[in-house]
Design brief:
Blueprint (H helix, E strand, L loop, with lengths): L12 H20 L1 H12 L2 H28 L5 H27 L7 H35 L4 H7 L6 H20 L8 H24 L5 H4 L2 H25 L12
Helix pairs in contact: 3-4, 3-10, 4-5, 5-7, 7-8, 8-10
Length: 266
């Protein structure tokens, strides 16, 4: 990632003031309409596991898709490099948060000895999110602004550039490893056929894809075509999990007991 094609104008004061005004407006609306906000909280308090599971999985699927498409378009020079980098970074941060919430929701639907698998998945998901947060916050708010201003030192360029053999590239590879281990660990809790079988298969597939991803980042970038299978495994698996939680919620509503605990996916 060269500083030559990272040049763009910094956000204007008008844009900054607009953003501040928007945030202030949202806070004021919440303060003057407490009943509406309370109703929203009350709605989410009913069957929170399936609601959080559905929305987190759906947002994970969308953010993974955006990340994959943006990376592909950037690779093909179909969009400006800076736009591609920002889309990948922002969607990856959203994916990290939603993956943790999704894994936590899955864990709270599992009972018995199978909880060891779901808890292991949550643990690896947290490690994944920590690596993503480190890398993309540094890229978005440290590396890119300095590259735009042309104030990067040689040491900063070596540490922060997202190129093969550089520090942040190693962190990037490590986060793919943790995500693969997370999905591989949680796969066994989706025993059975139908939708659960497909979730299990795509979770295992993402775990297997971790191998060429690791080789791409730490051995030879030539393994990238095999590692590219990630762009299918993660969006599809998270979308299927969203469908699973949606079905679970409808099942509870049909029974007329939305306050009961969610059934185990096993």
């Amino acid at each position: 990632m060269s500083a030559a094609f990272l040049c763009s104008t910094r956000p204007s004061e008008r844009s900054r003031d607009t953003l501040i005004g928007l945030c202030a407006a949202i806070i004021i609306i919440i303060m003057i309409t407490p009943r509406s906000f309370d109703r929203l909280l009350h709605t989410w308090s009913r069957d929170p596991i399936n609601r959080l599971g559905f929305w987190s999985a759906l947002l994970a699927a969308v953010s993974a898709t955006v990340c994959s498409v943006a990376a592909l378009l950037e690779l093909l020079d179909a969009i400006p490099r800076l736009l591609g980098i920002r889309l990948v970074d922002a969607s990856s941060l959203i994916l990290a948060v939603t993956i943790v919430v999704m894994m936590s929701s899955i864990h709270h639907t599992v009972s018995g000895d199978q909880r060891v698998w779901s808890f292991t998945g949550v643990t690896f998901a947290v490690l994944y999110a920590s690596q993503v947060s480190l890398m993309y916050i540094v890229q978005l708010f440290v590396y890119l602004p300095k590259a735009q201003r042309g104030t990067l030192s040689e040491i900063e360029r070596m540490l922060l550039a997202d190129t093969f053999g550089i520090f942040l590239q190693a962190v990037d590879g490590l986060r793919y490893l943790f995500l693969g281990l997370a999905t591989l660990a949680v796969a066994p809790v989706f025993a059975g056929g139908g939708l659960r079988r497909w979730i299990r298969r795509f979770f295992v597939a993402n775990g297997i894809v971790t191998i060429p991803v690791f080789l791409t980042y730490f051995v030879d970038p030539g393994f990238l075509p095999l590692a590219g299978l990630w762009v299918v495994a993660v969006p599809v698996s998270t979308f299927l999990v969203a469908v699973h939680f949606r079905r679970q919620r409808y099942t509870l509503e049909e029974r007329g007991n939305p306050h009961s605990e969610t059934e185990s996916p096993t």
